[in-house]
## 1
Amino acid sequence: MNKAEVAKLIDHTILKPEATAADVQRVIDEAADLGTFSVCVSPNQLPVSTPDHVAVATVCGFPSGAHHKEVKAAEAAQSVALGADEVDMVVNLKLVKEGEWDEVEADIRAVRDAIPGALLKVIIESAALTDEEIVACCEASERAGADFVKTSTGFHPAGGASVHAVALMRKTVGDRLGVKASGGIRTAADAVAMIEAGANRLGLSASAAILADLA
């Protein structure tokens, strides 16, 4: 894939808690120049103004996922009301580890129902999960009406995206859902490997450096 094609798969991301409005504006300007699909910002940065060709994404229940589903739903709804086109929610990892799959689905569905007009991505924190848990999370996300499954927040000590996790997620959801690789992708080789494994969206903060290494 060439530089422009990869750029169109990128959510250009700034989620540092200490980020200022000026930092966010710099990322928006970069996204416009690079031709990325979107910018991804924290909820407290909303609303933001972007060019028409740059969508606005935000996060929900971030970064732990350890929030009541009603709180996640309210947060997501407020973000969409403030202009977010897409919401990346963190799954409830306690429920995942306890194998409470109906409750995992209910957690996701609460957010889905709160933002009917927006695109929903579910962050499963794949590096902290077994293969069986990755598959079950993807299945619960699909049942709950999610549009994408996403590997990682980039904040978990277990790590970020891996080629193995992306390939397993793609195998599980087929072409019915998108797969977003995020967390620890810092080189063009990393980005291309994730795309080849099945990712059709990338969460990157080093977008400019990665795209500079592509033709």
Note: The first strand starts at residue 10 and ends at 14.
## 2
Amino acid sequence: MTLRATTAVVGVAESDLGEVGPGLTPLDLVGQATARALADAGLAKSEVDGLFTASSYFPMSGMDTAEYLGIRPSYVDGSTIGGSSFVSHLLHAASAIHAGVIGTALIVYGSTQRSDGGRLRSPSKANPYEAPYRARHPISMYALAAARHMHEYGTTREQLADVAVAAREWARLNPAAFARDPLTREDVLSSRMVSDPLTKLDCCLVTDGGGAVVLTGADRARQLDVTPAYLLGAGEATWHRAISTMPDLTTTAATDSGRRAFAMAGLRPSDVDVVELYDAFTINPVLFLEDLGFCAKGEGGAFVADGALAPGGTLPVNTNGGGLSYCHPGMYGIFTIIEAVRQLRGECGARQVAGARTALAHGNGGVLSSQVTALFGTEDVR
């Protein structure tokens, strides 16, 4: 069974972003994003019969969210696999729609972690067998992967810094981005070291924010007064939970999730116009671009260097500014979907990639643990 182009995203929206939480709760941001996404789709709340969500605040997030929104879904999925949860929910929702279990799915998330003191709030906790080593969770785990990639393939700190600089160049074109000041390679390299070899500016933002995605069947999507973004393929994979059990620090399960997504979509990496990756740290895009097939293993550092991912570069990556410069409210994956859809709908203003017909959204969860890939296309690609 294939899900290719059987469903389409018809509505996307963020809540207020940045530092907006004082006086608001994570569910308030969920409500903002939901109302805006439904308005974007031209659908009523009563038409939502599938709810997909994850939260680091509410262990029973599906029930809390349904209660807050005032909906009574017939299908609830509150599975949590970290920041990749929402790309995973996309696959689960498409499966349920294709099977006729539901007609319209709402995927939603909200967090006020910046207003809650600026500390990372995550369902991902340190492994007790690793705790005696006093690693800084999760940054030390990503620093391990970065250090190993540098050792094994000659990747440099300068190349990692170029990932952050490219993200900032895109963010400067996005009025909604949290960080829009100019950023240079030297700024990244000279910023405070947090976990060697990653500095503060190699790390994602800590913001408030929420997002919502509305998915429905392809036939229904064509009846709406919107431009659908068709889900062409999706795949997910999990290889480990703790970084100490990761089979190879330089290779992630994106090799499997990407392969499955591309096979379902009938596409190759060279067919993709826009790439939205979960960039919690600058090493992430290097690893994912390799593992998803955009370059060979070990060539990621050279691939991302010298503005290759920035506006005017060889591959548009994280065109909203990513988790490094746009927003990062604890779990970022839903925002990769939102930006991919907007690019295909031609709604991105100064940062719009001309002629974008295909887009990839990739979520990462835990400590490089869970990987989920989705591919979208316009009507003419479908």
Note: The chain has one domain: 7-117+205-377.
## 3
Amino acid sequence: MRSSSEVAQCDLVYTFFHPIARDDRTEGFEGMPKPPEVMPVSPTSGRVEGEVKLSVSYRNSTLFIMVMHIKDLVSDDGDPNPYVKTYLLPDPHKTSKRKTKISRKTRNPTFNEMLVYSGYSKESLRQRELQLSVLSAESLRENYYLGGVTLGLQDFDLSKETVGWYKLTAVPYF
């Protein structure tokens, strides 16, 4: 696309002419600097509310993150289509990205989906953070950010399952 960035990067052009999903667009260009990835904020006047219920457990060199429920999401644009995306940070190549399925038209979704990270020792996990983002999947425009939380895995007792509610905040999106 040789048009202005306003035209080349508009949602309509992306929908029909760009085969790469926007959250993967910075991958694969060796030697070129990656532009900072910016996720559109929810059309909620900057408000972020809600909580996510997670179960975190570890067995046999595998970290299990059960995304159970989210409650009280905010969206002024009708009911969102929420899904959860997680990373184990630091992760410069985005190899730890995991996603749940999309839950349609709800502010209080139930996922009950297990996100699995295999091949990690307890010691290496203690030096990582779990970054969780809640986004709304939109068919005719770019997905938007509803909130997130970053949890230091050193704060968890990995010898047992931990279940809890975590408040979503307006953390910057990576």
Note: The first helix runs from residue 5 to 8.
## 4
Amino acid sequence: MSPAALARTVDHTLLKPEATTADIDAAIAEAASLGAYSVCVSPSALPVEVPSGLKLTVVCGFPSGKHQPEAKAAEARIAVAQGADEIDMVIDLGAAREGRYDDVEADIRAVREAAPQPIVLKVIIESAALSDEAIVGACRAAEAAGADFVKTSTGFHPAGGASVHAVALMKQTVGDRLEVKASGGIRSLADAEAMLGAGATRLGLSATRAILDDQVAQGSY
């Protein structure tokens, strides 16, 4: 995979609570200069202008997921109205841990209805905080609710971020019907390549430049 091809798998991400308007503008400019697929920001960053060819991803119910479905739906609807191309929503982890997958599905469906296709909906299941059984159940709920992607992590949970095991399990569960986004703790070229090798088609990165520079330095393409 060439550096340009790797860059096109990346949602270049800035979700720090302390991010300023200048920080967000810089992240957008960096995403565009690196050839990333999208830039991922918080809802309060909107509205923003992004260059042609760069998608705008906005998080929803972030980072805890402990919001009423109606609140998540409203947040997604506002984000789309303000220019979001893609929505990354967080599920209610407690519902997944308790096996209440119908509730997980209803939560996701509320956001899907508020942000219908062609808006891309990615569902963050916080895989490091779930058992394998719950990962599978959450992925199945996302598929049933009409999501486009399942995503490993917010990057904010103390349990950790993406793992090769979780990505592989998620890919095994959704097959080619949905795509898998790996995010959280991917800080090296080796990490990125491992996640793509396990079945991810999109990466959530904040260290995009460092990873691409490392790829060029190593000539690993």
Note: The beta strands are 10-13, 38-41, 55-60, 86-90, 120-124, 149-151, 179-183, 202-205.
